[in-house]
Structure formats: structure tokens, C-alpha cells
Design goal:
By secondary structure, the chain is α/β, with parallel strands linked by helices. Helices cover about 40% and strands about 15% of the residues. It is built from 19 helices and 11 strands. It has a 6-stranded mixed β-sheet, sandwiched between helices. It has a 5-stranded parallel β-sheet with strand order 2-3-4-1-5, with helices on both faces. The two termini are about 20 Å apart.
Length: about 375
């Protein structure tokens, strides 16, 4: 079960003394990766009620009853379930100097909100996402080694050409566009029941338990509307009117969804605010399967009017994931002029400026972005050349 984060996590304690914090949504494989890499560590699962009760004492002597006297490493899994996870981690870090501490949490909002002060300078965060395309191929035993091919195709200065593959790219891509890239999809492909259950009972579980939202129905309805609008500009007034909720609540819920790794916003690239959109964000989901489950639509790709949007969501979320794992320091945007010209993805690292049009099938390449930003390179990514 190779993951891009394996090596960074493996060498963490050879570089740092700070706590290793692994964040990500439910069921992306956080427990699997830490138990694999730190197989000799003491392991505490906070979802185990007796363990949770002892950790809630916030007393180092009580904690010692859970930890072997000769322990060198300790994993606390699902630490977000504690009332104050930062306090518990701080006590162990400060008072058990010989123990390397690894903690995982499903809700990034809760972890960061509760630990930002008490763990300042004591932790280093890592984010685990649903599988990248390369991780998926390796776990399916189609490829042998992990790569960042999609990111490199975008960032390297080479023309993207159509390719022939030694595997059935069409069926693999269709499965991913419809059912997504959670690890569950590797051994149980095209599992509608799993995705529908995940959306219904798990995706909002942390948010509801933490009382971060007041209205589950509104949150669910908002997620469904956003799922139908991937790649579109967010119109908060329209969402407010459609759902009968005030704009501040809509904005807050979207922010919570983003901090919980359900979706993310892409903001505009603009150096000329008079002629370019400079404020409105676009919405994307980290996983196509979650998006389709929200809409209860698992139709064949050939029958779908939204296949272009699904491919765009896949590529942009793939770039976001690969950038978080790699050492490339690009920031991601989209670009749109007030005259309607558009580039789906813009990457900028203050040295290179790259525009990417993402289309299901090859089309004429719009030159408006290149004409506006002479230093930029612009390329088109399609289902025939993305990998």
C-alpha cells in the first residue's frame, strides 16, 4: 500500500523532535500508514472508550498506565475525539521526552482550532488525501512505482501529446471519475453502497459531533448544490436565496467543509482588476466519488453531460494532492477576463507562470491568457494526454 507520504513520514523523527500530526478526512488511510511505518510503536485508539477516559484525565501519571515503560514511540489515533486534543498531546510531549509522538485526526478544523495555541512550535502537520492517480495504479498493481506524472506534465516545459497506454486507461479513468479515489475503491471497485453510506453517515460525522453546524439538513442540501456546481463560480447570494439561509451561514458552512477536506475553493489569478475577475472563488471536491454520491448519480460516463466537469475536478484535485506531497511550491488559481475568456488552472511560483486548459476532448487553445501574460506557458490537458 505505497503512498507518496511514506518517505516523509518515515524520516520525520530523524529530522525533527516535534510531534508528527497526520490530518485528513475519514477513511483516507491515516491509521494504515502510521501503523505500517511505525509498526513497533505503542498504539492508542481514542475511539476505545477506556482509553478515551484515561486520556481525558489530562494527567501524566494516568497516561503512563497506557504506555509501556520502554516505549520509544506512541501513536494516538483519532485524537480529535478528545475534548482537548492539544492539551493531551502537549502533556505527553513535554513530560515524556524520550517518546516520539504521532497523532492522527479526521477533522482538520478541530485539530487546528484546538491545538493551534497549546502545540505552537511542538508539531509538524502532514496531510493525507484520497489516493493520487499514481497511488491508485500502484495499489491496483498496474504500475510498480509511484510518480508525479500529472504534475510534471503540467509544470515541465514540454508539449502535451496524445499517448497510447499499456493498460486500459479508458475503463480505469471512468471508474475514478465516477467512483473516486478513496482506498476502499481499490479492492471494492465501483461500490455505490459504500459511497452512499459514507456520505450519509460519515462525511458530516465530525462536524456534527463537534456542533460546528446547527442544521444538518441545510449542510447536506448545501453540499448537494455545491456538488452540482463543481468548476463554477460560487454565488453566495444565489445559494442564500435558494436554500433559505443567510449569507454568513452559507460562507461559514463552506469554510467548515473546506477545513474538513470535503471540498476546496480555487481563487482567481488577477494582476489587472479592471479587466479580470479578482474575487469570486470556484468550488471543487477532493474526490469525485463523494461528489457523485451526494448527487446519487453513478451513471456511465458516456451518458453524462457533466463528464467535462468531472474530468476538470479530477485534474485540479490531483494537482492539489500532488503539490501537497511534492517539493514544488506552486500556488493554484483560475483565470477569467471580464470579457469571458478563461483558463481552468493557473500555477504560479513567482518564477514560472503556467496556464492549463482542462478539456475532456481536445479543442482549440484559447490564447487570451498568453496574450495578457506574455511570460506564461499555456497547454491543454485532455483524457488522452494527462498521464
Amino acid at each position: 500500500m505505497q503512498r507518496h507520504l511514506d518517505e516523509k513520514i518515515k524520516i520525520h523523527f530523524s529530522k525533527y523532535k516535534q510531534i508528527l500530526v497526520l490530518l485528513g478526512s475519514r477513511q483516507v488511510g491515516k491509521t494504515t500508514i502510521v501503523k505500517k511505518i511505525f509498526s513497533q510503536a505503542n498504539y492508542l485508539l481514542v475511539d476505545n472508550e477506556p482509553i478515551r477516559k484515561i486520556l481525558e484525565t489530562y494527567d501524566i501519571e494516568s497516561y503512563k498506565s497506557l504506555i509501556s515503560p520502554d516505549a520509544k514511540m506512541l501513536i494516538i489515533d483519532e485524537i480529535h475525539l478528545l475534548s482537548n486534543p492539544g492539551r493531551a498531546a502537549k502533556i505527553i510531549y513535554d513530560q515524556l521526552n524520550d517518546v516520539d509522538l504521532i497523532i492522527t485526526g479526521s477533522s482538520s478544523f478541530h485539530i487546528k482550532n484546538k491545538t493551534s495555541e497549546s502545540l505552537a512550535g511542538r508539531k509538524i502537520d502532514y496531510k493525507l488525501h484520497p489516493l493520487t492517480f499514481s497511488e491508485y495504479l500502484v495499489q491496483k498493481d498496474i504500475e510498480k512505482d509511484l510518480n508525479f506524472n500529472i504534475l510534471e506534465n503540467v509544470t515541465l516545459k514540454k508539449e502535451l501529446k496524445d499517448k497510447n497506454y499499456l493498460f486500459d486507461m479508458e475503463s480505469i479513468l471512468e471508474s475514478i471519475l465516477i467512483y473516486g479515489q478513496y482506498p476502499q475503491n481499490v479492492n471494492n471497485p465501483n461500490d455505490k453502497k459504500y459511497l452512499l453510506n459514507f456520505v450519509d453517515s460519515l462525511i458530516l460525522k465530525d462536524i456534527l459531533e463537534l456542533k460546528l453546524i446547527e442544521d444538518k439538513k441545510l449542510a447536506t442540501d448545501l453540499l448537494k448544490v455545491l456538488a452540482s456546481q463543481i468548476g463554477n463560480l460560487i454565488n453566495y447570494s444565489e445559494l442564500s436565496s435558494r436554500l433559505g439561509a443567510d449569507i454568513r451561514t452559507i460562507r461559514r458552512y463552506i469554510e467548515i467543509f473546506e477545513q474538513s477536506y470535503i471540498l476546496f475553493r480555487l481563487y482567481p489569478y488577477s494582476k489587472n482588476k479592471r479587466n479580470e475577475i479578482s474575487k469570486s472563488a470556484k468550488i471543487y471536491f477532493y474526490d469525485n466519488g463523494i461528489r457523485n454520491a451526494l448527487l446519487e448519480n453513478f451513471s456511465n460516463i458516456s451518458l453524462r453531460e457533466d463528464k467535462g466537469a468531472l474530468f476538470e475536478n479530477f485534474i485540479i484535485s490531483e494537482i492539489i494532492k500532488q503539490l501537497s506531497y511534492s517539493d514544488k511550491n506552486y500556488k493554484c488559481y483560475y483565470w477569467r477576463s471580464k470579457q469571458g475568456s478563461e483558463i481552468d488552472l493557473v500555477l504560479d511560483n513567482n518564477e514560472d507562470l503556467i496556464g492549463v486548459e482542462i478539456k475532456y476532448k481536445k479543442r482549440f487553445l484559447n490564447q487570451a491568457f498568453k496574450n495578457r501574460y506574455k511570460q506564461a506557458s499555456v497547454k491543454m490537458m485532455t483524457v488522452n494526454n494527462f498521464y
